[in-house]
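Postdoc handover notes: sequence design on the structure in folder B. Input tokens:
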């Protein structure tokens, strides 16, 4: 008797495929199915408006212009670093890496905007994951680069020694680790940590991402933010403590280092130190304040996304504005981390407009950014050269000459 239809075995994917290979094949087939995108966006309520029916809107044009400025600004900084041999030093590697990640963030977000709207519903899941993952990886690299810069500044201040060959290796290790961690975080959804096949666990902001993945990433970034705050707080304390020791002197034998100023300049020295504290505190406040203002709204939105069910939180459908504010951080990073260096400003000005912005003797005309300046007079600038590290650590532009001068002075004492 012929076997009934009910008794017939289920069709297999292939005669020689293992269960694991069959799962990968089915996942690959789902990743090429455009209807998955429509189903997920419809479930989260994102298809109720006209956003995914129309083309680019005015706000999209604004974000595209911002991204173009990000790309141009960071490309100029990278070109200045590449053309000037003075910047081919380990201390500029992290700044170059931050600039590169910000440039790529601008590029990937431009692609994201162009392929959004009505174009989103034409994507396959694999293209969607690549689109969102590209933005995620570059933004994560930018954020982790800020942490790497804070780590390097802290290590430099704690050791207070001239640069050695080990510093180059440490820089490359930090840069490599930042990109490896960013890539790992970015590829987790496409490798399986997503909500395909389980709509109830989907994010509203990113409909193919699982809420558990969103919560994990927000926790990681909040941890990075906390680490940056702690490191800069310690840097400020170290700078303040070192300046007090250098200005106040000490005793207790040959092993004790004594660095004292003359009695006639004691009051002036105290005033300069007070100004340095304020300048350092101002810069640290700018660094942390800009980062928090740009990123914290997006973190709060994503936390709300984890807690809210689809359609219950209307603010989740305005996520583009929150991501746009986070992208602005990539526009401000070159100003905060690069243009605070006088040498870097001079190199960029030479690159852009050498004749109109430089005097005949090669000095830069005073066009700068007052709130990023640390020396208000030539006298104070000389004091900065003597005491070295206190004035340069706030911007991260600690050069070998600064540390060697301070280190040599300490050894002679």
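Designed sequence:
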């Amino acid at each position: 008797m012929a076997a009934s239809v009910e008794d017939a075995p289920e069709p297999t994917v292939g005669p020689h495929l293992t269960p694991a290979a069959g799962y990968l094949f089915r996942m690959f087939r789902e990743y090429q199915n455009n209807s998955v995108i429509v189903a997920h966006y419809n479930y989260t309520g994102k298809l109720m408006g006209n956003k995914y029916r129309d083309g680019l809107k005015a706000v999209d044009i604004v974000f595209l212009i911002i991204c173009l400025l990000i790309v141009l600004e960071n490309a100029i900084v990278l070109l200045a670093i590449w053309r000037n041999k003075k910047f081919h030093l380990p201390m500029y590697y992290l700044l170059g890496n931050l600039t590169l990640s910000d440039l790529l963030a601008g590029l990937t977000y431009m692609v994201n905007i162009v392929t959004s709207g009505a174009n989103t519903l034409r994507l396959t899941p694999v293209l969607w994951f690549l689109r969102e993952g590209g933005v995620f990886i570059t933004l994560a690299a930018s954020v982790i680069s800020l942490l790497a810069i804070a780590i390097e500044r802290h290590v430099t201040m704690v050791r207070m020694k001239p640069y050695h060959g080990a510093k180059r290796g440490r820089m490359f290790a930090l840069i490599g680790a930042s990109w490896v961690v960013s890539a790992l975080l970015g590829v987790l959804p496409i490798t399986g940590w997503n909500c395909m096949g389980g709509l109830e666990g989907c994010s509203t902001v990113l409909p193919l991402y699982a809420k558990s993945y969103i919560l994990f990433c927000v926790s990681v970034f909040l941890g990075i933010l906390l680490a940056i705050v702690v490191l800069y707080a310690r840097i400020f304390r170290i700078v303040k403590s070192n300046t007090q020791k250098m200005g106040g002197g000490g005793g207790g034998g040959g092993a004790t280092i004594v660095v004292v100023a003359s009695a006639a300049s004691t009051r002036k020295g105290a005033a300069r130190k007070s100004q340095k504290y304020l300048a350092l505190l101002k810069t640290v406040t700018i660094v942390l304040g800009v980062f928090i203002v740009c990123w914290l709204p997006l973190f709060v939105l994503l936390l709300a996304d984890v807690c809210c069910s689809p359609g219950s939180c209307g603010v989740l459908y305005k996520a583009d504005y929150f991501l746009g504010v986070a992208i602005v951080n990539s526009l401000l990073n070159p100003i905060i981390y690069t243009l605070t260096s006088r040498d870097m400003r001079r190199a960029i000005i030479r690159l852009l407009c050498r004749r109109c912005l430089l005097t005949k003797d090669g000095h830069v005309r005073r066009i700068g950014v007052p709130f990023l300046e640390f020396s208000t007079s030539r006298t104070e600038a000389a004091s900065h050269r003597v005491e070295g590290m206190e004035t340069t650590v706030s911007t991260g532009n600690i050069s070998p000459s600064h540390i060697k001068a301070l280190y040599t002075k300490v050894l002679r004492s």
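Context for whoever picks this up: The chain has one domain: 20-412. Don't rerun without checking with the PI first.
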